[in-house]
Amino acid sequence: xxxxxxxxGALLAMNLMSPLQAQPLLDVAVTSGSSGQTIPVFWNRGxxxxxxSPGERYSVRLANRSSERVLAVVSVDGVNAVSGExxxxxxxxxxxxxxxxxxxxxxxxxxxxxxxxxxxxLPDSYAARxxxxxxxxxxxxxxxxxxxxxxxxxxxxxxxLSAPRASAEPPxxxxxxxxxxxxxxxxxxxxxxxxxxxxxxGSLAQRLIAPAPPRVxxxxxxxTGHGERQSAPVRLVEFQRAQDxxxxxxxxxxxxxxxxxxxxxxxxSWPVPRRPEPxxxxxxxxxxxxx
Length: 291
Fold this sequence. Notes:
- This protein is α+β, with helices and mostly antiparallel strands.
- It has helices at about 125-130, 175-180, 185-190, 195-210, 255-260; strands spanning about 1-5, 15, 25-30, 40-45, 45-50, 60-65, 70-75, 80, 95, 100-105, 105-110, 115-120, 140-145, 220-230, 235-240, 250-255.
- The protein has one domain (about 1-165, about 215-265).
- The strands form three sheets. Strands 1, 2, 4, 5, 7, 8, 9, 13, 15 and 16 form a ten-stranded mixed β-sheet that branches. Strands 3-6-10 form a three-stranded antiparallel β-sheet, with no helix packed on it. The protein has a three-stranded antiparallel β-sheet with strand order 11-12-14.
- The radius of gyration is 28 Å and the shape is globular.
């Protein structure tokens, strides 16, 4: 299968690997587009989370920790970062040489450039704008080892480098109102209520139609936008996978810091207590009683 190999790289780390594997084939990390530094990871129940800010550019850093070539199929918001297809592990990805580190900076538009990744509100995300908002908020990397010897491999057509746009399916018809209209009225069949019953039912009705207490405003989830073009040259290479299933899968979840705090992923910050100093002054002052 034809895949992409890049000359540059950088980003985030996540690990779901075989228990027999001493260390991951690949380190994965999310890095800030402005500082180039790794965005801190918050662990919750064995899962990795990073906090992003709307408008902030980011990259996915891939670092090959093995002495062999590996294939990394990168998914952002459930969309293949190379082809734009709804992501699957059998699709095209990036080939990294032994010990190579590279940065995936955006959606692949050609062998010459990408459209930058940036954190944005869900409606502006690339996945939502192409009718696929269901998996916004997650970065995945499926890693494959290379088959040692390949004999008579059938030619594979070139992968599509421009991201196809998927149209959203129309929502299913809502049968709720029709069913409600057809439902028989139980009150019509009941006997005429007494004055006490009417008073009780009236107070109940008032309670039922009373306005609900105000809810805390929900935070719009973050997604990944389709940003400005940036040069990111790659070339097409052949890569034969050693097996059909990934050797390891990395998953990193992301959202705004506010949303992660509300979900309990990030604990609310508390004031840091003042640390005592061992040498605060030069001489020993007199205690109050002796002045």
